[in-house]
Amino acid sequence: MFPAAMSNSTSLSEEASVSSCTRVQDFGRLNQLASTIYPLQQQQQQQQQQKTIKKKRSLPGNPDPDAEVIALSPKTLMATNRFVCEICNKGFQRDQNLQLHRRGHNLPWKLKQRNSKEIKKKAYVCPEPTCVHHHPSRALGDLTGIKKHYCRKHGEKKWKCEKCSKIYAVQSDWKAHSKTCGTREYRCDCGTLFS
């Protein structure tokens, strides 16, 4: 009886070794397949990451040391439509826009051309002496930025939310607030409602 059981067990062990051998071969094939597919996926992920990497803006108040520091008056910063058409009295924020408008009246016009040598970085300081951005080392890097800063921090707040009576100096801030005011409500566990 013992030899028969032994022969039976050897056949089982042979089957086990054969099946484990085929499994090893299957895993070998899978590894080869994975090694060819994985680098492709890795390359695609790297390409997507490179596409999503955006050029970061320099932080406000950390200007380029080579930039020309410009101090504008509060009147200039708050001015809208500084460039006025002499025919129809329509105002524009930029001279280039006025020049394009002048074409409609068949008046002589000239657009400024930029030369690569002419481009120099500019930084703008706030005219308020008590402001953090008044010092040249904390100047703001673009004209729109300094205008909005001056309006927000030192300008008259004339835009008021009708729902919550919050006031804003910049119309775009007021519009953004008005879109979401009163729509976001958070309920505490105690039942109190917060907006």
From TrEMBL:
UniProt domain C2H2-type: residue ranges: 83-105
Pfam families: C2CH-3rd_BIRD-IDD, C2H2-2nd_BIRD-IDD, zf-C2H2
Annotated InterPro entries: C2CH-3rd_BIRD-IDD (IPR055187), C2H2-2nd_BIRD-IDD (IPR055186), IDD1-16 (IPR031140), Znf_C2H2_sf (IPR036236), Znf_C2H2_type (IPR013087)
Highest taxon listed in the record's lineage: Eukaryota
Entry keyword set: Metal-binding, Repeat, Transcription, Transcription regulation, Zinc, Zinc-finger
Gene3D superfamilies the UniProt entry points to: Classic Zinc Finger (3.30.160.60)
PANTHER family, A to Z: PROTEIN INDETERMINATE-DOMAIN 12, SERINE/THREONINE-PROTEIN KINASE RIO
Protein name: C2H2-type domain-containing protein
Higher taxonomy: Eukaryota, Viridiplantae, Streptophyta, Embryophyta, Tracheophyta
